[in-house]
Every structure is written in structure tokens, then in C-alpha cells.
Amino acid sequence: MSFSKTIKTELQSIKQLDCCNKAELSALLHISGSIEMNSSGLNLVFTSTNNAVVRRFVSIAKSLYDINLTIMKKEIKRLGKHDQFIVKINDKANFLLRDLSLINDNAVFFQDVDEALIEKECCKKAYLRGAFLATGSINSPETSAYHLEIQAFSEVQANVIKEIANYFNLNTKVAKNKRGYIAYIKEAERIADFLRVVGASNSLFEFEDSRIKRDFKNSINRVINCDIANERKALDAAKRQLEHIEIIEKKYKKNISKGMEEAIFLRKKYPDSTLLELSYASLEHYDKQISKSALNHRFRSIKDLANKIQIEEGLK
């Protein structure tokens, strides 16, 4: 089961007040509703590919209006397409159009939402819940690309969703796509807030748990990669130091400072060690520990002397 379907299955069982049920039903029909005229008159039609969403729609509609519904299933033969459920409302259809704010004063369907319908904060949450149930989707929390979107079929619809979502500081934006417009959220923290707002508590826990695990794993990988890079850098530096030492030893058997002699001894004794490791190793061979900073200074002097020798011999 996809993560989006898991969320919708959880939301299907939420209990709420009638005012919230009305706001949620309005959102479901605003996003996935249509008008149909036939010999029996005007029908309100709701479509979805999610069985849990259809059950939610039917349950709320019947509890609010005590109406008769016709439910049909349409098989989709195309690969990757889900069967479609169609719910038709003929009973009280004209009344529902007005009561659920599905038609505005200019006789335009499925656009504006009456502010009175979403005046309460709980009703705003319910409207968002209905919009998500209708066409919402969220990427799996297992992926690194955080994305929540609700598909709308007009810019007006998308902006209504955006404004309600941003009442809860969800940083929602609107964009055009092939099917119309989407209201979308990209930030993981805001997606988690959205799940909290619509009441998907179990899905929120799964989302956050997966995100924490992945972020922890990514942090470990960054540390490991950093350690590998530092180790490679240390090995490259050690290799160059040994090359400088070889140049110096061919030219000078004596007459180099005691500090250089100690650094040369330690590097040849421990060819793969870091400066910090050489610093600790110096305790085993000398009266006191040679600091990492002192060793770094001595190897710079060794490098300078090696370069000077090469210049004098015309090798550079």
C-alpha cells in the first residue's frame, strides 16, 4: 500500500462535528465532483479510485442529508490505472449545490467557497482533509524528495486550498501542471504539520520516524565520507613527505637540524600515520611529545629544503 493510500485509509475513520463534515464534503465535491444532466434531472457526481474515500464520502453525505445514492464501479483496462468508483446523487442535488457552496452567485460550479462554510478552524482542517482525500498525494517518506500535492482543476480551486493551508503556516504554493493546477508543499517539516492538521496521527508518526532514520543514516554516511576523505588526504600528504625525505637524504647525510631528523625518523617509521598519530608516537621515542603543530612546521621545512635542492640541481 502506498503512503498516500495509508493516510487516506486512516483519515476515513475520523469522527467530527456536522459543520466539519459539511466542510469536508464540500471539499470532496469541489475537487472531484461534477454535474450531470439526464432524463431524471440534475445529478451530483463524485468519482474516486480509492475505496476508502468513497466510503467516507457516502457515510458523510448520508449522515448530513439522509439522501439516496447510486454507487457504480467502472473498470479501467489501461495498464497502471485503478478502477474508478462513481457516486451519483439525484436526491436533493439542487439543495446540495447551494448548501455546500458548489455554485456561486454567478452560477459558476466548483470554484469559490463560502467563507461561512470554513469560518471555524476545525472546519478549515476538515476542508483540507477533504481536499487531500479527493486528489492528494505524498511521496513515500523513504525517499529523499519531500513532496505533498493536491490536484485541482482550476487556479481558483488551487488558491482556495493554498489560502486555507497557509492559515496553518504550511508554506503552500500553487503551480500549473498537465491536469490543471496543484497546491503543493515541499518542506518535510511543513508536510509533517499538514498531517498533524488533518488528523493523520499514525501516518505522521510513520513519516517522522522514517525521516529521522534516513537523516541519521545520511549523517553517518557524511561522517564516514569525511573520514575517508581525511584519511586519503593524510596518506597523500605522507607520500609527499616521504618523497621530500628521499630527496634530502640523497643530498645530505648529515648537517640537518635535530628537529628535522626527528620528523624524518617518525615519518619513515610510520609511513601511513597522520600527524596526530605521529605526535603520540613521538612519546615512545623521545623525552617528550612533539606536538602536531611542531611536526607540521618541521615537514614544511623539509619540503622547502627538498624544493631548494631540486632547484639547485635544475630539476624544477
Q: How would you explain this protein's 3D organization?
A:
With 316 residues, the chain is of the alpha+beta class. It folds into 2 domains: 3-199, Endonuclease I-creI (Roll); 216-312, no CATH class. Helices cover 57% and strands 14% of the residues. It is built from 11 helices and 8 strands. It has helices at 3-11, 18-32, 51-65, 93-99, 121-135, 155-167, 188-198, 201-251, 258-269, 275-285, 292-312; strands at 33-38, 41-48, 69-74, 84-89, 136-138, 148-152, 173-177, 180-185. The strands form 2 sheets. The chain has a 4-stranded antiparallel sheet. The protein has a 4-stranded antiparallel sheet with strand order 5-6-8-7. Strand 7 (173-177) and strand 8 form a beta hairpin. It is rod-shaped.
Structurally, the number of domains stands at 2
Strand content: 5-15%
Counting DSSP E segments of at least 2 residues, the number of strands comes to 8
Principal-axes geometry comes out as rod-shaped
Helices and strands, in order, run as HHEEHEEHHEEHEEHHHHH
Structural class: alpha+beta
Overall mean pLDDT stands at 86
The CATH topology of the largest domain turns out to be Endonuclease I-creI
Name of the CATH class of the largest domain: Alpha Beta
Query: Uncertain spans, ≥5 residues at pLDDT below 50?
Result: none
- For the largest sheet, list the strands in their spatial order: 1-2-4-3
Q: Give the biggest sheet.
A: 4 strands, antiparallel
